[in-house]
Design a protein that fits this description.
There is one protein chain. The chain is of the alpha+beta class. Helices cover 32% and strands 24% of the residues. The strands form 4 sheets. Strands 1-8-9-10 form a 4-stranded mixed beta sheet, with helices on one face.
Length: 390
């Protein structure tokens, strides 16, 4: 248990145009394609990108069989939506290599429900959920601000108000905490791709108002701790500058290092994979526990075995901030939600094409959407938990 109250903490984020995030988006767009055709589709899709090349591999099972041409069209659409029209990586002419095949029957027989057994987990593993009341979104402030800076820069790039910026970018926010709460920014780092000919100072002034609009009033760090493109130049970016791969930004996707991580990535996986669905459920429960006032912080761990329906363990840690015994919270969780793979999918309505939007700027701390995306961010367990713990 960590009882340190005064400290300095840092989280980072990466933009939708970061090479790894291009891969996450392509993989999740293909998940959505399959789920739109068949809500019971199975996908385990990995993408790799480099100069003038996109490779897609993995396993799928779907009532509709998609041709390579159909899959390639979706890949190019994902790249276009990000905004890549640069030399050596353009959505129109990048080489797209599709090498997907049918799901293993050995996996299918362990996961699929039958008359004799419930649907089992798609793999073994541990998943964590976390929530904190330090922000309205119940997210660590360091990560929330890092995401918001890049989302604002991307929005400005897309709407034409920041035409000199490119798709590839990273941010990092360091905050000072007093008595466990953030009080000011100690350091902010932003690296963003830009058009050739701009000086480092010019890029810094383009970026500055977006950072200022995200941080609370008076929180900007000292000027010598506000870094923009510290190397001085960032013209060559995206897959031309660095290869990308699905699932390499799992800390960016979750809690920015403020909570444990089970190691499993999300993108490319259908919701029978507990790496994804159980991590969403753990966040959902942790957020509702904090919102209900039972703790200021909450970490939840779930564990599963492939082919086994029920979680092997449910662990709750309120890190010394709780006002209800963790054992009682565990009992209450079992009363308000079914944490089997099918129970999670049904409760959160995960068998829908809702995943492409999750592929950048974090899977958590987002507003639930009418199409069902981010259903795990709802606070509809608050009252059931209060009743269960009454």
């Amino acid at each position: 248990m960590n009882n340190i109250q005064n400290y300095i903490f840092t989280s980072e984020s990466v933009s939708e145009g970061h090479p790894d995030k291009i891969c996450d988006r392509i993989s999740d767009r293909l998940v959505d394609l399959h789920l739109a055709a068949d809500p019971e589709a199975r996908t385990a899709i990995e993408t790799v990108v480099t100069t003038n090349y996109v490779g897609v591999i993995g396993e799928t099972r779907c009532k509709k069989e998609f041709s390579k041409v159909e899959l390639e069209t979706e890949v190019r659409a994902a790249i276009k939506a990000i905004g890549y029209e640069q030399d050596d990586f353009h959505w129109k002419n990048v080489e797209v290599d599709i090498r997907t095949h049918n799901q293993s029957v050995d996996i299918a027989v362990g996961v699929d429900a039958t008359d004799a057994k419930e649907e089992g987990a798609g793999d073994q593993g541990i998943m964590f959920g976390y929530a904190t009341n330090e922000t309205d979104e119940y997210m660590p402030a360091t990560l929330l601000y890092s995401h918001q800076i890049l989302r604002k820069l991307a929005a400005a790039r897309h709407d034409g108000s920041a035409p000199d910026l490119g798709p590839d970018a990273k941010s990092q926010v360091t905050l000072e905490y007093i008595n466990g709460k953030p009080v000011k920014a100690k350091c902010v780092v932003v690296s963003t791709q830009h058009r050739d000919g701009l000086s480092q100072a010019e890029v810094k002034e383009i970026v500055r108002p977006y950072v200022e609009s995200v941080l609370p009033s008076g929180w900007m760090p000292d000027e010598d701790q506000f870094y923009v493109n510290p190397t001085g130049r960032f013209v060559i970016g995206g897959p031309v500058g660095d290869a990308g791969l699905t699932g390499r930004k799992i800390i960016v996707d979750t809690y920015g290092g403020a909570a444990p991580h089970g190691g499993g990535a999300f993108s490319g996986k259908d919701p029978t994979k507990v790496d994804r669905s159980a991590a969403y459920a753990a966040r959902y429960v942790a957020k509702n526990i904090v919102a209900a006032g039972f703790a200021e912080k909450c970490t939840i761990q779930l564990s599963y075995a492939i082919g086994v329906a029920r979680p092997l363990s449910v662990y709750v840690d309120t890190m010394g901030t709780g006002n209800v015994a963790e054992s009682k919270i565990v009992d209450a969780i079992g009363k308000v939600i079914d944490l089997s793979p099918r129970g999670i999918r049904k409760h959160l309505e995960l068998n829908r094409p809702i995943y492409e939007i999750t592929s950048a700027y974090g899977h958590f701390g987002r507003k639930p959407r009418e199409d069902g995306a981010f259903s795990w961010e709802k606070l509809d367990l608050v009252e059931p938990l209060r009743k269960a713990l009454a």
